[in-house]
Amino acid sequence: MCNLFSVVRAFEHCGADVDVIDDPTQVASAERLVVPGVGAFCDSMREIAGRGFDEAIKSFVETGRPLFGICVGMQMLFDVSEEFGEHPGLSILPGRVQAIPNISRSGAEPLRVPHIGWSHLLEPCGRTWSDSFLEPLQGLSPAVYFVHSFVAIPERAADRLAECDYGGHMLCAAVQHQNIMATQFHPERSGIMGLNVIKSFCAL
């Protein structure tokens, strides 16, 4: 449920040997697993589950090997999404996916939803990018590319690795919990900063 070509090309540019798989049994032999996605949460989950990738992804996580979710691929890691009704996710990370507010936090102006374009990544209060897959961006407050109408709300504050300020709302932009990493932004469309994130993941 995404433009796999752009993701593959970005990972190959960073030196990765990429296999695009359509058989969930192939997940078990992967050194690292990337789960990208765009579009509606429910459609993506239906496709994942219908092809048997839901259990394969959960089993992969249990091995301790690195997993990287991108955009809707990040959202699917959580318990449930409120997009077009409530739909269950993979429940790998605790939390919900909710709509981006359509008015600024001050209430003074409407916000355009979906959030499309470049926004700066910020470190959440109490957490730094040191020793995370975002470590190459430490101290840079880099601009990265977003396209989304919904955003994950992690239940555990410690899972929240990066944020972006959208109309005063601090949207979750990246998460990491042990071997599970994910970005709401598109690293494959975020220039050199996005490539640095991919290189960091590939070096794990």
What structural keywords apply?
single chain; 204 residues; alpha/beta; Rossmann fold; five-stranded mixed beta sheet; four-stranded mixed beta sheet; 23% helix
Characterise the protein shown here.
The longest helix has 12 residues, at 191-202. The chain has helices at 4-13, 41-50, 53-62, 72-75, 191-202, and strands spanning 33-37, 67-71, 80-81, 87-88, 95-99, 115-120, 143-148, 150-154, 160-166, 169-177, 180-183. It is globular, with a radius of gyration of 16 Å. The protein has one domain (4-202): 3-Layer(aba) Sandwich (Rossmann fold). The strands form three sheets. Strands 1-2-11-10-9 form a five-stranded mixed sheet. Strands 4-3-5-8 form a four-stranded mixed sheet, covered by helices on one side. A two-stranded antiparallel sheet has the order 6-7. With 204 residues, it is of the alpha/beta class. It is 23% helix and 27% strand. The mean pLDDT is 96.
CATH homologous superfamily designation: Class I glutamine amidotransferase (GATase) domain
Q: How many beta strands in the DSSP annotation?
A: 11
Shape: globular
Mean pLDDT: 96
Please state the structural category.
Answer: alpha/beta
